[in-house]
């Protein structure tokens, strides 16, 4: 039996199913109202409605406190009230919608998708009446306690999808050249804020997924805005994450004490994957970093380790209060923006695409017979 041939055929079938699902999602996304930080009534401390504003998701009212400005943290348990008053769901929905439409245009060349994607981008980033100020000074705050926190920078990782969408929209002629320049100016200003603000400097010091995603974002934005020298430096410096975060078994050691340790381990692997993708564009091979010295501190071994807990009956030896993120959808309402880019299935596809290792193909085949059959990663990883 040729396992590779069977798995490849299953992946090809999944690409067909994924494209059908993508077009259905994109058709629904055409009906989406343009999204903006100005849509959300709660105001940040600045009193500027253009400033991004979100609440710390794991903060809950302290039941033993006499006032309403005292909080306790329940790691991994999102307080639904924080979603209601945050701009974060809007940012996520906008980014995923933009990407959904751009990807649909890429495969179908139906200009309606490109035009709608451009409309969403203009509203969030360019229109003076609705655009977001390029900072996260008020991200993941605790009202009455903290105005904004470094951890809020993790919210903007979804902007990477917007930049990826820009590449797919290149031939659609839906932006004027002045608009393209203006969008790059926005991201350049945002990048400068990430690099120079006290909040950004603190987030850069984080040793766990927050530090990795900070590096992934800044590298991606630097590359997009044309600062290849900065992108190269960030990618080169990010080798420290491979050296310090991954142990000899491929485990993400700073994520193992979380209540959703499997998901956070996977989440961090995707930040490393993002850095490796940028590295591929600036001549630094992070995919194979640490593969020759025998210590297994690399993306390959981390994905293999996580994949070892897919089979029924396999017991993840650390705390995980929810189902593991093997192949997941995110539904932000209206069933139009269904896409979760940080699951195991997506990582497995990257693994196979880069390393050409057939040892985990049986898992890809098995997962692609279920919900993963329509996973958008089937289109993204092999996108030409």
Automatic annotation (TrEMBL):
<dbReference type="InterPro" id="IPR008929">
    <property type="entry name" value="Chondroitin_lyas"/>
</dbReference>
<dbReference type="GO" id="GO:0016829">
    <property type="term" value="F:lyase activity"/>
</dbReference>
<keyword id="KW-0732">Signal</keyword>
<feature type="domain" description="Alginate lyase">
    <location>
        <begin position="36"/>
        <end position="314"/>
    </location>
</feature>
<keyword id="KW-0456">Lyase</keyword>
<dbReference type="Pfam" id="PF05426">
    <property type="entry name" value="Alginate_lyase"/>
</dbReference>
<dbReference type="InterPro" id="IPR008397">
    <property type="entry name" value="Alginate_lyase_dom"/>
</dbReference>
<protein>
    <submittedName>
        <fullName>Alginate lyase family protein</fullName>
    </submittedName>
</protein>
């Amino acid at each position: 039996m040729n396992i590779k041939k069977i798995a490849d055929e299953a992946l090809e079938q999944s690409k067909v199913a994924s494209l059908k699902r993508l077009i259905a999602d994109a058709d629904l996304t055409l009906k989406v109202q343009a999204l903006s930080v100005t849509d959300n009534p709660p105001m940040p401390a600045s009193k500027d409605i253009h400033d991004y504003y979100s609440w710390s998701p794991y903060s809950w009212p302290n039941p033993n406190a006499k006032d309403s400005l005292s909080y306790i943290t329940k790691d991994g348990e999102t307080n639904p009230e924080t979603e209601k008053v945050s701009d974060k769901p809007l940012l996520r929905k906008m980014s995923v919608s933009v990407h959904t439409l751009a990807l649909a245009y890429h495969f179908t060349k139906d200009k309606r998708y490109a035009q709608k994607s451009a409309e969403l981008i203009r509203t969030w980033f360019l229109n003076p009446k609705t655009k977001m100020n390029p900072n996260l000074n008020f991200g993941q705050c605790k009202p009455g306690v903290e105005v904004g926190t470094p951890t809020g920078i993790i919210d903007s990782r979804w902007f990477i999808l917007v930049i990826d969408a820009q590449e797919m929209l290149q031939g659609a002629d839906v932006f004027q050249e002045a608009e393209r320049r203006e969008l790059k100016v926005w991201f350049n200003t945002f990048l400068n804020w990430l690099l120079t603000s006290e909040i950004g400097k603190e987030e850069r010091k984080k040793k766990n997924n927050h530090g990795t995603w900070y590096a992934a974002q800044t590298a991606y934005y630097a590359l997009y805005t044309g600062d290849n020298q900065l992108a190269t430096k960030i990618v080169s410096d990010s080798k420290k994450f491979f050296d310090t975060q991954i142990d000899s078994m491929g485990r993400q050691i700073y994520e193992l004490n979380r209540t959703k340790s499997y998901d956070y381990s996977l989440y961090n692997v995707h930040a490393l994957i993002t850095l490796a993708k940028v590295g591929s564009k600036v001549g630094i091979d992070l995919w194979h970093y640490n593969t020759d010295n025998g210590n297994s501190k690399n993306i390959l071994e981390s994905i293999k380790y996580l994949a070892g807990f897919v089979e029924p009956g396999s017991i993840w030896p650390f705390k995980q209060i929810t189902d593991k993120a093997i192949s997941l959808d995110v539904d932000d309402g209206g069933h139009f923006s269904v896409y979760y880019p940080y699951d195991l299935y997506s990582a497995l596809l990257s693994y196979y695409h880069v390393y050409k290792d057939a040892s985990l193909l049986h898992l890809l085949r098995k997962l692609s017979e279920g919900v993963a059959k329509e996973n958008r990663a089937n289109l993204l990883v092999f996108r030409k």
